[in-house]
Write a structure and sequence with these properties.
The protein has 316 residues and is α+β, with helices and mostly antiparallel strands. It is 31% helix and 16% strand. The protein has helices at 9-13, 17-33, 46-60, 64-68, 111-116, 127-154, 163-166, 236-241, 300-310, and strands spanning 6-8, 36-40, 80-82, 99-102, 172-173, 176-178, 191-194, 200-204, 211-214, 220-222, 230-234, 251-253, 265-272. The protein starts with 5 loop residues before the first strand and ends in a 6-residue tail after the last helix. Bound molecules: 2-oxoglutaric acid and fe (ii) ion (FE2). Residues 194, 196, 201, 251 line the site of fe (ii) ion.
Length: 316
């Protein structure tokens, strides 16, 4: 049984109103149910994906001392390198078995917003890593914009409702390396069960086994995408904003069986965040007698800070 539904973004941008509506209905239904889709027809071409993986592998292969020169204190790991074991899922004390990098927004024509965000960190040893990261960031952001337009229509909002909040938004592209496992990990896993913080997440690299999502019955389901698909899921910000009509599904990355401990896993999520002043207050259209308002009013900025403290990335 295929458990994560597949959709094709070409339907949405085809100009054919019937196909467009079909996409809106399919993704809307999937997000009210399992909270995940596998999406074809995104804006990353094969060469970009291949080069991105090559550069990401080059970066994580650098000596630890070199990588650590890019670990910047005081910014909650929001740009540059975060070393192995630093991040733990909300409520968990063991660190995840991963190291990662963060590319952030390339702000256009807004000095105030630019001053709000930490600067992107450039890797001197790998000029192409910086260039390809920026290109992938832009293409994932563009893909996410169309997905959010479809969701706006599903929620009976203006199609471009989210555009104002995501332009120059606080999105993050996070290449992750889960290194080979060299000793009994005990309680630690590659990524402990969690919901994502942001509006939506676009994940490259869910082709191999490892990623699992939890269904309504509490069962863990393998989420595996085709090589040309991105896995796209709802995050907690969008779930709050829609009064949990759209579901932010708990997911995790399990450790491989012992015979595969020697292999690395690479994955590259793009966390689509809005600008920090977006109000995540529950939309009026998502409240009714059967589903009264479930969440307090909060801005995206306040919510993010709360969660980064819980993840151990910023200290109180
Ligand atoms: O590595 C993966 O496949 C998923 C990672 C993930 O869920 C996350 O970083 O939020
Ligand atoms: Fe996640």
């Amino acid at each position: 049984m295929k458990l994560v539904p597949s959709v094709d973004l070409n339907d949405f941008i085809s100009g054919d109103p019937i196909k467009k509506q079909k996409f809106v209905d399919e993704i809307g239904k999937a997000y009210e149910d399992i909270g995940f889709v596998a999406l074809k027809g995104h804006f990353l071409d094969d060469a970009l994906v291949e080069n991105l993986y090559k550069e990401v592998k080059n970066f994580f292969s650098l000596p630890l001392e070199t990588k650590q020169t890019y670990e910047i204190p005081g910014i909650g790991g929001q740009r540059g390198y975060v070393s192995f074991g630093k991040e733990s899922a909300k409520g968990k004390k063991e660190g995840d078995l991963k190291e990662f990098w963060h590319f952030g927004q390339y702000v256009e024509n807004d000095a105030e917003r630019e001053a709000e965000y930490p600067k992107n960190v450039l890797v001197e040893e790998l000029p192409e890593f910086n260039n390809i990261g920026k290109e992938a960031y832009k293409m994932l952001e563009k893909t996410a914009k169309y997905v959010l337009r479809a969701l706006a229509l599903h929620l009976n909002l203006e199609e471009t409702y989210f555009d104002q909040y995501i332009h120059n938004g606080n999105s993050i592209l996070r290449p992750i390396h889960y290194p080979p496992i060299t000793s009994e990990p005990k309680e630690a896993v590659r990524a402990a069960a969690h919901g994502d913080i942001n509006l939506i997440t676009l994940l490259m690299g869910a082709q191999g086994r490892g990623l699992q999502v939890q269904n309504h019955k509490g069962e863990w389901i393998d989420a595996i995408a085709e090589p040309d698909e991105l896995m796209i899921n709802v995050g907690d910000m969008l779930s709050r904003h829609t009064n949990n009509k759209l579901k932010s599904t708990i997911h995790r990355v399990i450790n491989p069986p012992k015979e595969l401990w020697g292999t690395s896993r690479y994955s590259i999520p793009f966390f689509m965040h809005p600008i920090s002043d977006m109000k995540l207050n529950v939309l009026k259209g998502c409240i009714d007698d059967n589903n009264p308002k479930q969440f307090d009013d909060i801005t995206a900025g306040e919510f993010l800070t709360e969660r980064l403290i819980e993840l151990g990335l910023i200290k109180k």
